[in-house]
Amino acid sequence: MKLRPYQEDAITALESWFATESIEKHPLLSLPTASGKTVIFSNFIKRTIKKYSDARFLVLAHRQELIEQAEEKIKSVWPDAPVGVLSAGLKRSEIDSQILVASRDTLASGSRLKKVGHFDYTIIDEAHNISPDEQTRYQKIINELSAERAMRVLGCTATPYRMGQGYIYGKRKDHFFHDIAYQAKIPDLIEQGYLARITSYKVDDNTIIDASKAKLKFKGGDYKESDLEKLAMDEKTIVAIINDWLDKAYTKGRTASVFFCVSVLHAMKMNMHLQKHGIESRLLTGETPGEERKQILEDFESGKVHAVCNVGVLTEGWDAPRTDCIAMLRPTKSLGLYVQMCGRGMRLYPGKDNCLLLDYGENIARHGCIDTAKPDQEVKIRRPKICGSCLAVNPPHAKKCVECNEEFPVAEFLTFLVPMEERKVAKKTKADSGAVISDEKQKNKSSLEVVTSVSAAVADSKNGNKYCKVFFYVDNQFLPRMMPLMFGHSRMHGLAINHWCRLVDPKIWGVPRTSEQAAAKINQGALKGVKSVGIKREGKYFNVKKVIFDDKEIFL
Predict the structure, then answer these.
(1) 54: number of Cβ within 10 Å
(2) What angle separates helix 235-248 from helix 264-276, to the nearest 10 degrees?
(3) Number of other CB atoms surrounding residue 351 within 10 Å
(4) Section 446-454 average pLDDT
(5) For 38, 89, 253, 273, which has the most beta carbons within 10 A of its beta carbon?
(6) Left, alpha or beta for 324 (phi > 0: left; psi -120 to 50: alpha)?
(7) Are strands 152-157 and 121-125 parallel, antiparallel or unpaired?
(8) Alpha-carbon gap, residue 58 to 119, rounded angstroms
(9) What one-character-per-residue DSSP string does 272-324 give?
């Protein structure tokens, strides 16, 4: 299996992390749904065992579909892989396997933790499900398996945040993961042809399920299902939604729609109405028997079924590349759930130009674009400012960057003063229209500038911190274009490694751990092959957004 360039970069970044970081610092691999996280960690497992023949891996997941998917991918990457499964639901207990793909719930129950032995690495799929509570099953497994001998832990997720907690990585006590080892962005993978674009049109005003009338489960929690159900079950609203979907999706040739409903009863009613309209629709819930669920999804993928009404089933661990429409009937305050639902439509499929999102729950207005939205925090805090010149993280009240002393534009300052918790979705009056991915609303495209030479220097910030400043000297410009690589920065070090592994061949130049090392390697020729850079004006800054070589384009 030939890996995509970013997948190779991700593996290199993981190898670098585990070779240089202390064992108690757990990294995250953060890539969008449909970008191949399972393929990446399967190849990482294979390469590690080929290098260290006695290395042992545990792959943990919380759903049966994820377990089956992980085993399948490992075997597709490595047909002779010494892989086994531990899952009560699958009736398998191959606990002595060198690579053990295990159900979280099965492993955490009974005496199995004492029987499985030691692992050198544990990989947690859909790692955003790890609670900060040390008494929960994931933490129990990690703590007990690490009690006698420490092990490396890697988390994989498309959504590195939890509702009520915010980001799941960082230096707070409730952060299980230390930082992101590698991250890929949705717009980049779409532009490079690896993901299908998800786009949206304004839905009719009378189709909105108005969550402003629903209570929350608890402080900082999601909406009460019973309240949403009362709102969603309104007959006029259901009929209006189906008519809107028929007009915007089905009659326009979109015959693979997934309806995300608010409850089992709501999904049943939606399915009944769709079938009354002559649509080949099926109902899928957590209570659907396994064989029936498998048949429904096979029929959907083959084209026999044109719509699936589901609740709480198809948000994780489900691949249906044919999906060309997401009908989001479920309002949610969870950014992770919103992004996961959108991600179901981003897999490539022959003849599929994009996936249409019809947002009947006002989630676009509530959260924003899926690639730029930030999670709410349990404690009301103001968002930090990111300097457009050097990417430094600044306090929300800063008027100048603490690293490079650049002034923040007034408009940006005002935007960051508003806490995310204070953003409100208007009560049901008029449906909104908005972009699902941020590049859809960007008016100014990057302009290309020919590069004549590249150099780098270690710059000292106002606070005395060091970072690597890359200079791209371009035609017809007296001053060079500059790009920071914040090696050693407490929050931006992972991003610097990400950029480095994409711009530079790490097999030749390695991965620097400090700004001094990065600058030295660049001055020795690490970026010698750069032909041009794409420059985009953002506020008053001209930022490097793309670096072009003879054989590749790297989007930053």
Answers:
(1) 7
(2) 60
(3) 7
(4) 86
(5) 38
(6) alpha
(7) parallel
(8) 6
(9) HHHHHTT--EEEE-TTS-HHHHHHHHHHHHHTS--EEEESSSTTSS---TT--
Q: What is d(CA 31, CA 96) in angstroms, rounded to the nearest whole number?
A: 31
Q: Hunting for tokens 């409100």 — which residue is that?
A: 424
DSSP notation for 137-172: HHHHHHHHHTSSS--EEEEEES--EETTTEESBSSS
Q: Which two tokens stand for residue 20?
A: 């240089």
Supply the DSSP symbol for 223. Answer: B
CB neighbours of 160 closer than 8 A, spacing ≥ 6?
A: 28, 30, 127, 128, 167, 168, 169, 177, 180
pTM recorded for the entire structure:
0.70
pLDDT tens string 378-423: 333 344 566 666 555 556 667 777 666 777 765 433 333 333 433 4
C-alpha to C-alpha distance for 186 and 355, rounded to whole angstroms: 14
Q: Rounded distance, CA 311 to CA 326, Å? A: 13
Write down the pLDDT at residue 200.
Answer: 87
pLDDT at 395: 61
**DSSP line for 13-33:** HHHHHHHHS-TT--EEEE--T
d(CA 267, CA 299): 18
pLDDT digits (tens, 9 = 90+) for 183-215: 988 988 998 899 999 888 888 889 999 898 888
Residue 303 burial (C-beta neighbours within 10 Å; 0-12, 13-18, 19+): exposed
Of the candidates 199, 195, 197, 226, the residue with the CA atom closest to the CA atom of residue 213: 226
